[in-house]
Design a protein that fits this description.
Elements: E1 4-7, E2 10-13, E3 18-24, E4 32-39, E5 46-51, E6 58-60, E7 68-73, E8 78-83, E9 92-100, E10 115-116, E11 120-125
Parallel strand pairs: 2-11
Antiparallel strand pairs: 1-3, 3-8, 4-5, 4-9, 5-6, 7-8, 9-10, 9-11
């Protein structure tokens, strides 16, 4: 069983930056495409960003393109989400996800995610 543990959430002013990190618990990290979803207050959970198994391809939701960057560090089995130019509408619980044997854009399909983290709160004040 894979465990995903997020860290790095918090409170930030609009225009600021935060960096989320997610630790993958098994040695099979390279078998998985990784990504991030988020769920804002009163909203459905939505795809944010993803990266394929070796970091060669990334995929972003239009709402974050140009502001967020997803990356992975294979030696540490971690994936990160660098969030810049944050807006109040980015306020949400952010979830790290893993999908085995997938391309980056395949991670956007919520129903096919293999593992979810517990989530970390990001709050952007105006």
């Amino acid at each position: 069983q894979v465990q995903l543990v997020e860290s790095g959430g918090g409170l930030v002013q609009a225009g600021g930056s935060l960096r989320l990190s997610c630790a993958f618990s098994r040695r099979t990290f390279s078998n998985y495409a990784m990504g991030w979803f988020r769920q804002g207050p009163g909203k459905e959970r939505e795809f944010v960003a993803a990266i394929d198994w070796n970091g060669s391809s990334t995929y972003y939701a239009d709402s974050v393109k140009g502001r967020f960057t997803v990356s992975r560090e294979s030696t540490k089995s971690t994936v990160a989400l660098q969030m810049n130019s944050l807006k109040p509408e980015d306020t949400a619980v952010y979830y790290c996800v893993a999908r085995r044997g997938a391309q980056a854009m395949d991670v956007a399909l919520r129903s096919r995610i293999d593992y979810w983290g517990q989530g970390t709160q990001v709050t952007v004040s105006s």
